[in-house]
Q: What sequence folds into this?
């Protein structure tokens, strides 16, 4: 029975890698010992070709040309405005469709001049998130400008058709628009009419800030804008007659973010953030509130500042609301980072072992040379040095949390920088935090509060949601003090253990095989009045 | 004459870590379109939030870029592989989430299976795709990276050489060997 020549297989693989149709060995070869491998290669070939098909750009050949305007083949009228018509056209030079905005024949000379001036301003901006104007000219007596053809829809259309956006989606939108506005402002221009109708979402998701028709040089904008822009998105001082500044584009952007989250046009009389949904993270709510602050001095000074605030929302832990979509998505995205960590360290999630998990945990305090075991409820004081001791009958993934001053969770273990990491080995005692670069570490009670509150979780396998939090919390690493103690931040007196309680309940409900421990240690020297 | 900053992935990552925003933009511009197209083929189109591939991809990338200092980048050529694994995981969770609403996890899995096919699944078939994925992640990581860059992202050998610092010929040989090994593992799994 003939076996395929190794060189033939080699050529076959080359064809597969080039995503080309392959010359498969004749049928009889399929009955040889290579049958399954050939089938596998066929699968790989199909996958390579499927990806290549998905990558292929659609052919963009002009269909029926209505007329020519300069070098453009005008294909169809897509919209009519007050003084101009919008066409889809084919730009042979660029090899793509463009949008052509042509002034009507009856436009006055001054209108035509303003129009071309506007085009010149817009063409100064080149940014991924700003509609690109390629050029402006006058042909056959008709001034026009041509720009990106966006295959997509406005934000208004999206919200009307599909409803409000999730928090993460909103953050990404906001970041894109901050960058767009930064580019506009860097060119010395104002947009002047930031609103959902002027924001396009291209198919595939690119956000494009469009229609700077109301915008331009600040002086020109201030001379004309109040009659042209839309009141719902304008800052109160502008409605009262104040000169416009780039910051007011950011005020409008705050309104856009509120709109996409709430699917309601902002009420110009109600400043700040007004959202009826519980899943919007406090950080995002805070960005909107600041952007739409009544006091201009409290608002973001420039687009980059607002962008940084939005980026911080993305990096911050997800909103705690257990039923909110924001939490779910936040954790999902954070889970991505946990996967990166797994890849970086070669720690792929293990299959849980079938042996029932048996873990012992104790809490210990070191004072001077003496070490004592503490029970739940034992009093602690500033400067106390704490550690946990664990012993499991199998490899254990351990997670330790307490609450920080704001009542938010803080992860104490695992921590990068420690010599000890998950999984903890089976059959011997392990001390947490253990060592860092060979030096013994302890958690030190370093601030006074009502109590220290701990949650410990043990599992025979990585706990996905906790792995996700592991990297979502950017403050973890900072808590490792290289001089010998891992600092422990005290829980806020007003919310002792609130989130730890809910977290413990959620974890227990989600996976009954998890082992959970709580330690609440009141401070001996709690602040007077608390 | 100014010297243009070097811009292979490793150098861009280093510059991002040192706070270079332009490097961050360049890396985003390099990977976003590629990953978006890739992700698009991986997502079923039945659910509204799944259609917004850009959000998922961009949010994931931004998170990764925000926290680059929180993981170790293990050598050249791996970053695209990281991104791919990360996104695959995110998308799987997203697909599952869109098809489920909490409760019985076994039921959730079953529902997720009925959640609609991605274009890739529709083209290849779930079982075959699963076999490919399973064999792929069992390969040495370097082989995974090379295969993914060539097969899934369609990078040519020159681009992969730029990414990895390996020579074009070495890349070609390594990828061919990796395909052969992948097929062997897939064949073993099917028997």
A:
């Amino acid at each position: 029975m003939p076996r395929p020549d190794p060189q033939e297989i080699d050529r076959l693989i080359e064809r597969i890698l080039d995503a080309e149709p392959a010359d498969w060995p004749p049928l009889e070869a399929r009955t040889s010992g290579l049958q399954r491998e050939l089938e596998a290669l066929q699968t790989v070939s199909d996958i390579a070709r499927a990806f290549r098909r998905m990558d292929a750009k659609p052919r963009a050949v002009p269909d029926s040309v209505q007329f020519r305007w300069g070098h453009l083949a005008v294909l169809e009228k897509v919209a009519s405005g007050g003084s101009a018509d919008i066409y889809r056209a084919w730009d042979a030079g660029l090899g793509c469709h463009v949008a052509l905005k042509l002034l009507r024949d009856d436009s006055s000379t001054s209108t035509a001049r303003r129009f071309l001036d506007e085009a010149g301003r817009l063409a100064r901006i080149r940014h991924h998130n700003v509609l690109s104007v390629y050029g402006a000219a006058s042909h056959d007596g008709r001034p026009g400008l041509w720009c990106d053809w966006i295959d997509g829809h406005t934000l208004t259309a999206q919200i009307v058709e599909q409803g409000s956006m999730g928090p993460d989606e909103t953050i990404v939108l906001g970041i894109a628009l901050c960058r767009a506005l930064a580019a506009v402002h860097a060119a010395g221009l104002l947009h002047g009419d930031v609103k959902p109708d002027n924001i396009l979402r291209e198919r595939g998701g690119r956000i494009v800030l469009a229609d700077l028709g109301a915008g331009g040089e600040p002086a020109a904008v201030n001379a004309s804008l109040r009659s042209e822009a839309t009141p719902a998105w304008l800052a109160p001082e502008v409605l009262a007659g104040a000169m416009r500044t780039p910051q007011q584009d950011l005020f409008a952007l705050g309104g856009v973010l509120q709109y996409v989250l709430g699917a309601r046009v902002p009420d110009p009389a109600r400043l700040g953030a007004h959202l009826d949904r519980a899943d919007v993270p406090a950080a995002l709510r805070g960005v909107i509130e600041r952007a739409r602050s009544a006091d201009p001095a409290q608002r973001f000074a420039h687009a980059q500042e607002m962008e940084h605030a939005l980026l911080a929302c993305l990096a911050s832990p997800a909103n705690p609301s257990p039923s909110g979509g924001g939490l779910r998505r936040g954790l999902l995205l954070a889970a991505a980072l946990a996967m990166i960590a797994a890849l970086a360290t070669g720690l792929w999630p293990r299959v849980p072992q079938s042996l029932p998990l048996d873990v012992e945990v104790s809490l210990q305090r070191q004072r001077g040379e003496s070490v004592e075991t503490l029970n739940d409820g034992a009093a602690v004081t500033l400067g106390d040095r704490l550690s946990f001791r664990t012993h499991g009958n199998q490899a254990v993934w351990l997670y330790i949390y307490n609450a920080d001053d704001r009542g938010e969770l803080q992860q104490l273990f695992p921590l990068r920088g420690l010599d000890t990491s998950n999984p903890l080995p089976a059959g011997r005692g392990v001390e947490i935090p253990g060592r860092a670069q060979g030096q013994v570490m302890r958690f030190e009670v370093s601030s006074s509060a009502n109590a220290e509150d701990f949650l410990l979780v043990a599992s025979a396998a990585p706990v996905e949601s906790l792995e996700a939090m592991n990297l979502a919390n950017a403050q973890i690493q900072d808590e490792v003090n290289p001089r010998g103690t891992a600092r422990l931040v005290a829980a806020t007196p007003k919310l002792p253990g609130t989130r730890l309680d809910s977290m413990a309940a959620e974890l227990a409900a989600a996976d009954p095989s998890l082992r959970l421990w709580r330690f609440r240690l009141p401070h001996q020297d709690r602040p007077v009045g608390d | 004459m100014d010297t243009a900053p070097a811009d292979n992935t490793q150098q861009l990552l280093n510059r991002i870590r040192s706070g270079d925003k332009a490097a961050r933009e360049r890396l985003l511009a390099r990977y976003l379109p590629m990953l978006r197209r890739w992700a698009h083929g991986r997502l079923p189109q039945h659910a509204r939030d799944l259609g917004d591939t850009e959000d998922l991809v961009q949010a994931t990338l931004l998170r990764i870029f925000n926290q680059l200092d929180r993981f170790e980048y293990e050598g050249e050529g791996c970053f695209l592989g990281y991104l791919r694994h990360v996104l695959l995981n995110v998308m799987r969770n997203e697909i599952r989430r869109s098809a489920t609403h909490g409760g019985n996890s076994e039921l959730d899995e079953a529902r997720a299976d009925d959640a609609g096919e991605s274009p890739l699944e529709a083209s290849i078939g779930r079982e075959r795709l699963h076999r490919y994925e399973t064999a792929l992640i069992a390969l040495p990581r370097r082989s995974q990276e090379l295969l993914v860059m060539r097969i899934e992202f369609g990078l040519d050998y020159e681009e992969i050489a730029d990414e990895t610092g390996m020579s074009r010929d070495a890349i070609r040989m390594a990828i061919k060997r990796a395909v052969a090994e992948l097929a062997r593992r897939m064949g073993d799994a099917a028997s």
